[in-house]
Amino acid sequence: MSKKQLYTLEYPVRCSPTILYDFLATSSGLQEWFADKVDDEDGTFSFSWNGSEDTAEVLDQEEEKFIRFHWSHAPKDEYFEFAIEKSEVTNQTILVIKDFAEKKEIKDQSMLWDHQVKDLFHRLGN
């Protein structure tokens, strides 16, 4: 099995970091766009999609800056992360997603993220 590699996606967002962070770091916010059902208990999030379930532990987070998750089934050094950055030039809020995938799967995984983020933007009124 080939080793997965880290890739990064960036999406400009028209909303405040405070509002965006709530959609990225709370079970109610994530349930709006990321999964059908999301529960959070002591830093472990349970996600459900069409009857399948997965859990992820929060590895690290900083309010209105980023949250990093680790899927329970993934190797220890892999994670997915939502970060919020500000463009110094335009002062625009940017959602940065970091995730791992095998090289040949990065394009498909990126398209999946694009679809998810489109749903998030719809919820945010973007």
What secondary-structure arrangement, pairings included, does this model have?
Blueprint: E1 5-13, H1 17-25, H2 27-33, E2 37-41, E3 44-49, E4 52-62, E5 66-71, E6 80-86, E7 93-101, H3 106-124
Antiparallel strand pairs: 1-7, 2-3, 3-4, 4-5, 5-6, 6-7
Helix pairs in contact: 1-2
InterPro entries: START-like_dom_sf (IPR023393), START_2 (IPR045736)
Protein name: START-like domain-containing protein
Domain START-like: 1-125
The main sheet comes to: 7 strands, antiparallel
User: In CATH terms, what is the fold-level topology?
Assistant: Alpha-D-Glucose-1,6-Bisphosphate, Chain A, domain 4
What is the CATH class designation? Alpha Beta
Q: Which range best describes the helical content: under 10%, 10-25%, 25-40%, 40-55%, 55-70% or over 70%?
A: 25-40%
Could you state the order of secondary-structure elements as H and E? EHHEEEEEEH
Spatially, the strands of the biggest sheet line up as: 1-7-6-5-4-3-2
Description:
It comes from Flavisolibacter ginsengisoli DSM 18119. InterPro entries: START-like_dom_sf, START_2. With 126 residues, the protein is α+β, with helices and mostly antiparallel strands. It has a single domain, classed as START domain (Alpha-D-Glucose-1,6-Bisphosphate, Chain A, domain 4, 2-Layer Sandwich). Helices cover 28% and strands 42% of the residues. Strand 4 and strand 5 form a beta hairpin. Helix 1 packs across helix 2. The chain is globular, with a radius of gyration of 14 Å. The mean pLDDT is 95.
